[in-house]
């Protein structure tokens, strides 16, 4: 899980926030986490888990003081679910690494970018013909 402190707001609001500080860390295999060097102030704790949809928000404002240590005990995230997943596109990990971007048609290519792409992932000619 990824957990961070950001200005108070709704769940997921940290993604649109650009006015204040944000402090993030990743929980270890047992779920423990520690966020160091946080500027004193009032924050909300936000989080997300790779492979699960939705955002976590701790209920309550966390006030950071110089040299302070805060123990939140156990935090539980229950992803939003209205039934079993029938179909999904991609993996809900906030990455796009499973998607293939094909080579552009030469007539539609931006002429400012003329160097050949070096990050080509798929060499199979059958797969090249599909855009997925």
Automatic annotation (TrEMBL):
<keyword id="KW-0456">Lyase</keyword>
<dbReference type="Pfam" id="PF14686">
    <property type="entry name" value="fn3_3"/>
</dbReference>
<dbReference type="InterPro" id="IPR051850">
    <property type="entry name" value="Polysacch_Lyase_4"/>
</dbReference>
<feature type="domain" description="Rhamnogalacturonan lyase">
    <location>
        <begin position="1"/>
        <end position="70"/>
    </location>
</feature>
<dbReference type="InterPro" id="IPR029413">
    <property type="entry name" value="RG-lyase_II"/>
</dbReference>
<dbReference type="InterPro" id="IPR013784">
    <property type="entry name" value="Carb-bd-like_fold"/>
</dbReference>
<dbReference type="GO" id="GO:0030246">
    <property type="term" value="F:carbohydrate binding"/>
</dbReference>
<protein>
    <submittedName>
        <fullName>Rhamnogalacturonate lyase B-like protein</fullName>
    </submittedName>
</protein>
<dbReference type="GO" id="GO:0016829">
    <property type="term" value="F:lyase activity"/>
</dbReference>
